[in-house]
Amino acid sequence: MPDTALQAWLEGLLDPLRAWADELGTQGPAIAGALAPAHYRGPAADRDRAILRELATRTDALARDLETVWAGVAGLVHRLEGRR
Amino acid sequence: MTGGLIVIEPEHLRVAAGTLAAIGERQAELATRLRRLTLPPPAWPLTAEIEAIAGRLARLAGDLRRLATELLARARRAEESQRPDGWMPRLLAAAPPPPPASQELGQMRDRVLHALDTAAARVPVGELELACLVMGMIPGLGLPFNLAAAAIEFARDDPGAALVSLAAAGADVVGLALEVRAVREGAVAIEAGRGATPAGTALRLLRDRWRYADLPPIVLGETLDDGTILIRRDLEGKDLEETLRHEAVHSWLRLPFVRVVVVRLYRASDLWRYAEEVAAETYATGDLLWSVSFPLRGGYVQPARVVGEAAAAAGAAAAGAAAAVAVRAVSNTHHHRPGRGR
Hints:
The complex is a heterodimer of chains A (about 80) and B (about 350).
Chain A: H1 3-32, H2 43-83
Helix pairs in contact in A: 1-2
Chain B: E1 2-3, H1 10-36, H2 44-81, E2 90-91, H3 100-122, H4 125-135, H5 142-155, H6 159-187, E3 210-214, E4 221-224, E5 229-232, H7 237-252, H8 259-268, H9 270-285, H10 288-297, H11 303-330
Parallel strand pairs in B: 3-5
Antiparallel strand pairs in B: 1-4, 2-3, 4-5
Helix pairs in contact in B: 1-2, 4-5, 5-6, 5-8, 6-9, 6-11, 7-9, 8-9, 9-10
């Protein structure tokens, strides 16, 4: 693939990757707070909320990973621009 | 049969399950889109990274959807076991027996309660109602008498008079709530995890009146018509403390003299049930704002019926205020009861 075509293709990836990372970033708090409004007490409630916290943490981590990929793609685009 | 269930709201579980399922679906979709990205050779290191992210995202989506399914199943079980018809809690055979000193105290209490019940049964209802009305005027001590009067009047199918007494009791509740708050902050001590024993003057009444029981999964505690409190066996710590406090209020309202009529009121009147649950939850959590909506969220009452009864009570209270003035005006000269009607 010629550099210009590759660069254009990678540039087209930047927006979706950013949008997906942002979307995952908003999902973390939504998952952690899913049971917050319920007056839900007892051992089962504690267990459920712990599970939700763990799932939210994993979601946040994935959002950060996607941001890292986005930064990598942006770096590639920058390098291709420099080569031309 | 029972009063004062603390329940998990199935609707909240269902909403949470919906939220989690929607997020799970979206994450699965994102994972699929990420996997479809095939980067050209210069970007191969990123491809491996994207593959790994897609894999983790797909697993996360699966976990979210499994949790959503479990919450939905729990909501269904909660609805099935909530206030089942004809259900009677079974006491656990393994429940530890109370210590000897406590047993003697319990027997003495039972004898006293039996004597009080017998005495109450022999008092003519009309005279008892009049006595309650008079005692209900004593500042600071009026609540049980006004409640008793309301209950008696309700029992003899005079809802107008009962609502006037309820309105009078409402003012007493405010004072009681303040006292209860003080007791809660100053005198309650729970030994979490070791078969908690409430301490403090006001809560000593409660000491021998609760047992662990085999309750449905969603029920943390409940109070029987005789004031006995049943607590789910695996409760401990803060949950036990709050549940005991909640049920204690129901238990206190089921002491002799007022027990029969209070139980009937709890079953028949949404306004009463609402007030009793708010008082109990306020005492349990110390959060009045939360407690005001607790009976609605828990499905204890129908909002329209509460509003209807409250409107009727407000109208009756206006008439009752005039009647109360008249009672005081004539109480030095004769003993009739103007304004309430028989």
